[in-house]
Every structure is written in C-alpha cells, then in structure tokens.
Specification:
The protein is of the alpha+beta class. 55% of the residues lie in helices and 6% in strands.
C-alpha cells in the first residue's frame, strides 16, 4: 500500500472530522500519534500529503482503519450503488445524498466504540396488498396499519411522533435535514444492513409529515433505495405511496367524526374554513384534505388556499408559525442520537459532533453533560493517551 494516489484534500477532511469526533485538538492528536503539531495542521489544511507511517499512526490514534483514513469509509459508494438510476449526477441531488451519507458514516464510526444500539430490522406488522389499483392498495395498507397499531380515527399529532412511529414499525432510522432539490429519500448501506430515511427540513411542517408518511409507504411496499425529488412524478409507486400517506394521516373515519362533532353532519358540502380546520387537526395541507374529502364524496371547494393563508384567515397564525419554527430544526435519528450521546458521555465523541447532529451549540451540549452522569463512566478509547499522559509528555523535564 502507498499514499501516492491519495486525494490530499479528502484525507485532510477525514483527519479533521475524525479528530473533532474524538474530541481532540491538534496538539493532543499530534502527541498521541507521535508526530508534530505542525504536521497535523498542514495535513488538515491540505498543504501536504501524508506518508504511510504518518497515516498509520493517525489512523490507530483516531481508531479508524487505515484504508478508511486514506480512501474513505466506502459508505458513499455503497449508497450510490444501491440508488443506481435513482440518483443521477445532478449536483443538487449529490448534496442531498451527502447529508444522509454523513449520518451513515457517523453511525459506522460509532461501531468501533459503541457496540450497543445498532440498527435492527423490525418485523413489519402488516403485509402490503398486491391486488387492485395503486390507489386502492395504498389506502388498504394505510387502513391495515392504523388498525394494527390501534390508532383508530385519531390524528398523529407531531412530526416527531410520526418519525418515531416509522422507526418503531420498521426499525429504519428517520432524520430531517436540509435537502436541496429533494423532498425525501431512502439511503441503503447493504454492507451494514442499515437504512435511513431523510426528509427535507426546509419544507413546511405539514409537507414534511406527508413526506415521512409517503416514505413509510415505500418501506412497507418494499421499494428499497430511492430519491423523491421536489418534482416527483406520478408513477405507480408514487401514486400508491401518496394514497397511503393521505389515508394514514387523514383517515376517512376521523374526518367524519370531526365533521359530526363540529358541524353536526358528515354529508357535506364542506366549507373552506372547515377544510382549514381539518388540515390543522390532522397536520396536513388544505389540499390533502380537499383531495380526501373529494374521494369521500363530501363536495369540498374545487380549490383551497394554502396553509399560511388559512392560518391567517381563521385565527391560528401564531400556532402555525411556532409549528414551522420547530419543524425547521433538523431532527437526528433517535437511535443514532442515543449512540452519539453515549459515546460523548464516555469521552469517545467530541461535543462538536454531537452538537452538529442535534442541531445545538457546543455550549449547550457541554452544559448538559451532567444529565448524562448515569451513563457508563467516561473513558479514553484504546490507543488514545489520557489527559494525564499528554500533560506529562508535554511538560519539560525537571
């Protein structure tokens, strides 16, 4: 093995990110690896390549395979192979994919230090129907899932609760992140048997909820890795997943119960304000409600205003803005966040990495350290010098 054909800029990024993940500064890494601080600095700035001896010392200190430090983890390549034709070489889509790959790479990196909480596939509680039209199969699957989970006719209140439902039902991680040109995607790392759903956190909360439900439909129908662009088409898979999402989020029985309770009748027609209130109640857009009412024969208006217009017109704009603000904050997968918090509590992960994962500041993460006091005792990872050892090495001889 040599470092002749290694991408210097990529190695610089990997060393810097791995050092930060280990919670080390450049001086600490240099002392532990037996190189100079100037060497670490120049490597991280991409000002020079790395020799094989240096790379081996850095990799051992940072607890990562030498091949990974020099050539990358392979996660991105495996994800792109799984996506195949679903991920054309469009720069915006590649940026979206990278946002998900970074989460999968962190999960892979944690394998070396945290054995617990790896992704495990869950036995699906329902079987996707194979007969009938795409629309009929989507609606049938949504009804079956609601019945199995005991959801009745009630709404699923929050975006986070819907994401957790997906994680519990399928075992697949769910995250929200800014995704240029993409509404949602499923990334697959076959080598680690790990799947990740990522939804665009830049979209409105009600759109995010629908996308999470739509992606759940893809999982339950066994569609595998894919990307849904902001301009997703209307093929069979998209049709049945849209139908699944609408019926999961806006069950017909729930609509009729709400109408009887608020209007005294469920026979229609349904006025604009009622459409807006139903949209707010079920956490979807007025257009989704309008389509569902139309399917139910309840004669809604042929066109309805957007959610912000409805919120302003009918007196719930403040609540709408609060919901949007919460939804814009990226959500990490619950399982991965638990692993990262555990690693941080043990001294195996830097505060900056956990802060980036959770969408918080380093100061906020460090202030919460006491909350993790019941976690396993903090210890340095094998191959890293302790603080006492580093100070002793740095101290002048007396």
């Amino acid at each position: 093995m040599s470092t002749k054909d290694v991408d210097v800029a990529a190695v610089a990024d990997r060393v810097r990110r791995a050092r930060q993940a280990a919670g080390m500064n450049q001086t600490a890494l240099a002392i532990a690896a037996g190189v100079s601080q100037a060497t670490v600095s120049r490597i991280e700035q991409g000002q020079r390549g790395v020799s094989l001896v240096e790379a081996d010392a850095l990799a051992r200190t940072l607890q990562m395979p030498l091949d990974t430090l020099l050539y990358g983890s392979g996660v991105a390549e495996r994800v792109l192979v799984a996506l195949r034709a679903a991920a054309p070489a469009h720069p915006d889509r590649r940026a979206a994919i990278e946002a998900g790959v970074q989460l999968l790479e962190l999960d892979e990196r944690l394998d070396a230090v945290i054995a617990e909480h790896r992704q495990r596939a869950a036995a699906l509680p329902v079987t996707a129907p194979v007969a009938g039209s795409a629309s009929a199969r989507g609606a049938q699957l949504a009804d079956a899932l609601r019945e199995v989970l005991g959801l009745g006719a009630a709404p699923i209140p929050e975006l986070s609760e819907l994401a957790e439902l997906v994680e519990e039902v399928t075992g697949v991680d769910v995250a929200t992140r800014p995704l240029p040109a993409v509404s949602g995607m499923c990334l697959v790392d076959e080598a680690r048997l790990t799947r990740l759903l990522v939804v665009n956190s830049d979209e409105p909360a009600e759109r995010q909820r629908f996308t999470v439900a739509h992606e759940l439909g893809h999982l339950l129908f066994g569609d595998g890795a894919h990307i849904d662009g902001l301009d997703a088409g209307t093929g069979e898979a998209e049709t049945r997943c849209n139908e699944f999402a609408r019926n999961l989020l806006v069950p017909a029985d729930g609509v009729r119960l709400w109408l009887r309770r608020t209007a005294g009748t469920d026979t229609g027609p349904v006025e604009e304000e009622a459409v807006g209130r139903l949209a707010r109640y079920f956490g979807v857009t007025p257009e989704v409600v309008r389509i569902q009412l139309e399917r139910m024969g309840l004669r809604p208006a042929p066109a309805v205003p957007s959610t912000p217009v409805m919120a302003s017109r009918y007196g719930w704009r403040a609540e709408y803005e609060a919901t949007q603000a919460a939804a814009r904050r990226p959500r990490p997968p619950r399982r991965l966040a638990r692993r990262a918090a555990d690693a941080y509590a043990r001294g195996l992960l830097g505060a900056a990495v956990l802060a980036d994962l959770e969408g918080r500041t380093v100061a906020e993460v460090e202030a919460d350290r006491e909350l993790l006091s019941e976690a396993p005792a903090r210890r340095a990872p094998a191959g890293l010098a302790s603080i006492e050892e580093l100070l002793a090495l740095a101290a002048p001889e007396r």
